[in-house]
């Protein structure tokens, strides 16, 4: 196990920019560690002081094909010199990206509505569900996160997302998500029989006015701490939605484009959502999003009833087309699966050895490391988690924390990470845990 150089953070230039940030930027922006990014290539990030890090954030699960991939950059540069934006008219790039997205998603999703952000995609999904069904209620889940615009915020299952912003959108209903490490019902996965699905009937009976239009769910919950449901849960949930005659919206803004070791997370259980929200990895750093939909649902909207000023702009679409090419040419989905299995195996071994690592979970190149004070009480340890994040950054591994209690470390590197780089990450995590 190699010893890795330790940086003193923040460096002098980072300290200068951090001070400027405190002066001129609002505190509502994120700051995971005391450093300032300057450049990046592949999985390597450099700060303004010249320190190098292996990136475990992917810019919040965005840069799936790696930072500044030459083919990605070239496509963006070429399109920037040709045409940046076009509203009210199609472009070859927009039409071509829509076609290719339809071809790689389930066959029932035969339309692609191109947008700019994940929040736009989830908002569009909720709006069109209400129009198509003529109903107004939408079910979401404890711990869920679907964006920061008002409708998306209203469907958030975390109080911190909507705290003190006033009334939420009427018809917002919430149900427990299967967080098996901290089951809200106090049950064990091997004996619960997916009780959380059965409980949905109680939630609707108590909370609904019999006007339920849709449910929206993530294949795994990102903001809540990379929480993965047990196998079969999403299949049962989709069946429940069909039985209730409501729209099944799958929010794959984080989980798509190879992140879980399949191109779309829905492939793990063969799901066929009525609406599929895409974002983040679709543009790999260029703001791009899409709502994949059944044409019968989109037909409830008249021409021009729902649009976006920069949605489907040719620059974003050129970036998206380049991402699709790169992922196929470099076999990044398979790399995500293989390297992810190696890393999760190493982290699971660490969870068995180190009492403070309560749980290691994930699929492909998205993993959550949940830290606790001890392995009996499982009490969350957010202060310890912050110390681990800081120490990893000092040792050249860039990460951040999240979750219900701020005690989960996000492990989600760009999909171009190599086995050697993954081994270095795991060795560094092991060294840091050994010191704590």
SSE topology sketch:
Elements: H1 12-24, E1 37-41, E2 44-47, E3 52-55, H2 58-61, H3 70-80, H4 92-104, E4 111-115, H5 118-133, E5 137-141, H6 150-154, H7 159-162, E6 172-175, H8 189-192, H9 195-207, E7 212-217, H10 233-244, E8 247-251, E9 275-278, E10 289-293, H11 295-298, H12 314-329, H13 332-353, E11 357-362, E12 367-371, H14 382-394, E13 397-398, E14 401-402, E15 408-411, H15 419-435
Parallel strand pairs: 3-13, 5-6, 5-7, 7-8, 8-9
Antiparallel strand pairs: 1-2, 2-3, 4-10, 9-10, 11-12, 12-15, 14-15
Helix pairs in contact: 3-12, 4-12, 13-15
Notes on the protein architecture:
- By secondary structure, this protein is an alpha/beta fold.
- It has 15 helices and 15 strands.
- A hairpin with a 2-residue loop joins β1 and β2.
- α3 runs antiparallel to α12.
- The longest helix is centred in the last third of the chain and has 22 residues.
Helix-residue proportion: 25-40%
Span between N and C termini? 17 Å
In DSSP terms (H or I, runs of 4 or more residues), the helix count works out at 15
Q: Using the coordinates shown, work out and report the CATH topology of the largest domain.
A: Aspartate Aminotransferase, domain 2
Helix/strand class: alpha/beta
The CATH class of the largest domain is Alpha Beta
What is the β-strand count?
15
Low-confidence stretches: none
Major sheet, described briefly?
A: 7 strands, mixed
CATH architecture of the largest domain: 3-Layer(aba) Sandwich
Order of helices and strands: HEEEHHHEHEHHEHHEHEEEHHHEEHEEEH
Mean pLDDT across the residues is 94
Rg, alpha carbons: 22 Å
Largest sheet: spatial strand order: 4-10-9-8-7-5-6
Report the CATH superfamily of the largest domain: Type I PLP-dependent aspartate aminotransferase-like (Major domain)
Q: What amount of the residues lies in strands?
A: 15-25%
Which oligomerization state do the chains in this entry correspond to?
A: single chain
Shape descriptor: globular
Total number of domains: 2
């Amino acid at each position: 196990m190699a010893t890795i150089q330790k940086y003193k953070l923040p460096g002098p230039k980072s300290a200068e920019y951090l001070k400027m940030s405190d002066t001129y930027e609002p505190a509502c922006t994120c700051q995971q560690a005391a450093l300032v990014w300057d450049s990046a290539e592949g999985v390597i990030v450099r700060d303004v002081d010249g320190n190098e890090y292996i990136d475990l954030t992917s810019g919040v699960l965005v840069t799936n094909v790696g930072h500044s991939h030459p083919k990605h950059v070239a496509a963006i540069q070429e399109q920037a010199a040709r045409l940046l934006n076009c509203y009210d008219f199609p472009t070859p790039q927009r039409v071509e990206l829509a076609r290719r997205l339809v071809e790689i998603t389930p066959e029932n999703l035969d339309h692609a509505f191109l947008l700019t952000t994940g929040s736009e995609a989830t908002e569009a999904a909720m709006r069109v569900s209400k129009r198509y069904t003529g109903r107004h209620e939408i079910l979401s889940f404890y711990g869920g996160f679907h964006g920061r615009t008002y409708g998306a915020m209203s469907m958030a299952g975390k109080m911190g997302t909507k705290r003190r912003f006033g009334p939420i959108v009427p018809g917002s209903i919430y149900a427990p998500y299967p967080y098996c490490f901290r089951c809200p019902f106090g049950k064990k996965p091997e004996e619960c029989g997916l009780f959380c699905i059965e409980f949905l009937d109680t939630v609707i009976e108590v909370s609904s006015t019999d006007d339920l239009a849709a449910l929206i769910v993530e294949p795994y919950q990102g903001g809540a701490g990379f929480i993965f449901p047990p196998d079969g849960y999403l299949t049962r949930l989709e069946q429940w939605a069909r039985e209730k005659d409501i729209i099944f919206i799958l929010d794959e803004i984080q989980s798509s484009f190879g992140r879980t070791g399949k191109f779309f997370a829905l492939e793990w259980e063969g799901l066929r959502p009525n609406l599929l929200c895409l974002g983040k990895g679709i543009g790999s750093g260029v703001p791009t999003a899409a709502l994949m939909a059944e044409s019968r649902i989109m037909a409830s909207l008249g021409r021009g009833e729902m649009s976006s000023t920069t949605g489907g702009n040719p620059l974003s679409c050129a970036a998206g087309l380049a991402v699709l090419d790169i992922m196929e040419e470099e076999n990044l989905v398979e790399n995500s699966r293989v390297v992810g299995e190696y890393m999760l195996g190493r982290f699971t071994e660490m969870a068995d050895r180190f009492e403070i690592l309560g749980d290691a979970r994930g699929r492909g190149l998205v993993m959550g490391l949940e830290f606790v004070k001890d392995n009996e009480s499982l009490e969350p340890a957010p202060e310890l988690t912050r110390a681990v994040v800081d120490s990893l950054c000092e040792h050249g591994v860039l990460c951040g924390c999240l979750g219900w209690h701020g005690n989960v470390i996000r492990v989600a590197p760009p999909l171009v990470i190599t086995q050697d780089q993954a081994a270095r990450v795991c060795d560094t995590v092991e060294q840091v845990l050994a010191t704590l």
